[in-house]
Amino acid sequence: MKFGVIGDIHGCWDAADTAFFNTAGYDMLLFVGDFARVTAATPVARRLSGLTTPAWAIAGNHDGVTLTQLLAEIKRRRLVQRIGALGMARRVRRMERAMAPVRLGGYTLARLGDDLGLIVARPHAMGPDRFYYRHYLKRHYGVHDFQSSAERLKRLVDDSPRDLILLAHNGPAGLGTTPADIFGCDFNPDHGDFGDPDLRDAITHARATGRRVRAVLAGHMHHRSKHTGQWRRTAVDDGQTLFLNCARVPRIEQAGTRRHHLMLNITGHGIEAETRFVDATGRIVEQMPIEADAVAG
Predict the structure, then answer these.
(1) How many structural domains does the chain have?
(2) Is the entire prediction scored with pTM above 0.85?
(3) Which among 68, 246, 254, 273 counts the fewest CB atoms within 10 Å?
């Protein structure tokens, strides 16, 4: 299958994007989350509803939340976290209805073919230093920490076909500890590796049970640090899996003349990926094969 993969949108989506992806020839579109510019995701979700190409999405840490709730999660204001969680299910449902027919997943397994499955991982992921949005996730999905989340993901793996794509908002742990690494923390060097342990455990379990994790698609840690200006590694390969960070922010540049996404092509024998930029008319103005850095498996 040939996929168009769209990183953190953060408000950068318009009718020209919809028109392009409806005619681009992709079998499926995959969105890694953070539709909202800051916290209002529903207006952006409505712009996606014109898509006719099949699509799956995962919610990011900015989606389905209020600004007060987001700040409470960052600053560990426990009472405000609990209060914010009360209305979160309603806000997520509103976003989900607005983006239909794009399907919003979370702990979801979709069978894309006899031997290819898509697992949509934990939504609203925000980092491994603590289990963010715990009250909502416990009420809605029955998970309350990284271990229970990993167990739920493993059960999805057990029901999946041989080959897998994992769609997440934040990437897995174990791929580097510096701000320039694919999911390294660029805003606090003390955090180092900012990938999620539950996603890493699901990948390990998939491999141990004979599955091939062909690709892991995520974002969250933007390609260029807003704090240092440093560019990060966006693709790594451990010899078994291609890991892609899709979050180029802003994804629309130069007054709309450059619009970022990734092409991912998966066959029975191999996998290839490209960075693509198109203009407002849908013309590809730049395409670059992705050469993934090798990391230890």
Answers:
(1) 1
(2) yes
(3) 254
